[in-house]
Amino acid sequence: xxxxxxxxxxxxxxxxxxxxxxxxxxxxxxxxxxxxxxxxxxxxxxxxxxxxxxxxxxxxxxxxxxxxxxxxxxxxxxxxxxxxxxxxxxxxxxxxxxxxxxxxxxxxxxxxxxxxxxxxxxxxxxxxxxxxxxxxxxxxxxxxxxxxxxxxxxxxxxxxxxxxxxxxxxxxxxxxxxxxxxxxxxxxxxxxxxxxxxxxxxxxxxxxxxxxxxxxxxxxxxxxxxxxxxxxxxxxxxxxxxxxxxxxxxxxxxxxxxxxxxxxxxxxxxxxxxxxxxxxxxxxxxxxxxxxxxxxxxxxxxxxxxxxxxxxxxxxxxxxxxxxxxxxxxxxxxxxxxxxxxxxxxxxxxxxxxxxxxxxxxxxxxxxxxxxxxxxxxxxxxxxxxxxxxxxxxxxxxxxxxxxxxxxxxxxxxxxxxxxxxxxxxxxxxxxxxxxxxxxxxxxxxxxxxxxxxxxxxxxxxxxxxxxxxxxxxxxxxxxxxxxxxxxxxxxxxxxxxxxxxxxxxxxxxxxxxxxxxxxxxxxxxxxxxxxxxxxxxxxxxxxxxxxxxxxxxxxxxxxxxxxxxxxxxxxxxxxxxxxxxxxxxxxxxxxxxxxxxxxxxxxxxxxxxx
Length: 611
Description:
single chain; alpha/beta; FAD/NAD(P)-binding domain; 3 domains; seven-stranded mixed beta sheet; five-stranded parallel beta sheet; 21 helices; 15% strand; disordered N terminus
């Protein structure tokens, strides 16, 4: 049974310029076309016969070294922004015996792997690139390209002496707690057995590529690769484009998410012909990148980056600020909300913030769809590129060349109306019963989200009494603050689950890194042998997560499928696996108040309980 209109449609449409009830119905119909019974199981793991999709193309083959069997005070797993921030905050806390272990050939994390043409941050670089003031750097543009971000990662490591003791091209295979010695033993694919008093896991949420589980995936006789392992030896060119190796090639790309939006304009320029296979269109807002104003950069006062980060975070999570410092597509919807609230207040109308937020969202997405219509010349293609869902059902995209690419005569959109590609053949891709012969297939299918931690990390964690983390979390994630887990002493996790979600990931990572550094500092001061969260404190946090989960549940259930809502099945994912529902600002406040309390409540240290 359809929802009954809450207002007279004619009156609403005349006042707003669109019919809210018609949009709700259209969104629901588009969602229903895309819901699949297999959810996350529609993707295959990049292992076995697909393992070559995760080979590192940026290092010389044949690397070998002797196994390492020494001991360190703190071992950080992961060399992306999380690992870098953890290393920096530990250095500031006085930790000298520190090692970072990373499976890539250098620091950078997702920015080490993602070097596809056009790769760039979609959150303003002045708030996205961490530690700008500490390093003494201001990005060249409002939105930095991948090469600049990768170099900034290296600059952080150099500045804080994180290369010392770092181990690259090395993947963890197991991690177990040794009770007699009070140490973690971390083994790797290089034969290492490193002992560590403390381990900080900063594996990252966007780390393991995924492939669509299509029949015949392994049968294709042409060339194929994943965007996170771009093959410039085949395509020619570099991150700035110039893919001259594709001039005589028919290329197909599967996926139209954030990565595809950035690389498709370059594929369109380089390929003989490009077929873009689409299941669900992305929302494409104005990017308006521009060089950094030297006068503005020179005027910045100490603390500018943190103020700017906090201003952005408050606005994109529905809070109010006197000024919008970033003023981009992310904060635009909040500006629209404020206008609507002020308008209703001036007219003496009651303000329902949830309803007003929905109307502001409708207005924003109407603007997004109108932009498609104004840019894409072919009417049928334009209609297929219009997104019919709420703005934050999928990660919004910002680009000034993506839609224009579909006006090129050598680019064809193959819209599958939500059904997706049917299969891969030795010759190409089949969609809608039609086979498209191809020389090359590019998989822009993203990274695993929602699968088990052990699968994404590539190893399990064996804690006290031989309990595996995968078993401890079998019925849902169990942590305090998303950082500590009962039965896993001296182990800290930097992640998104049971923490405050923000589109500006580095902000959340830094808050967590500061928190862990504080805890480690306290433990080191007392000389305690180990620290561990109590079962009671862990359960209380789980209860908090579950109690707040309803705040966004209805929104996610009504969204078109994607990784934000577990591929359209939020009901199949335990409520406790989600985020801290009160938002990132509230989450940061929880961490701060816990530190200010002074007794480390809910934590057990050897010899007694703090709190």
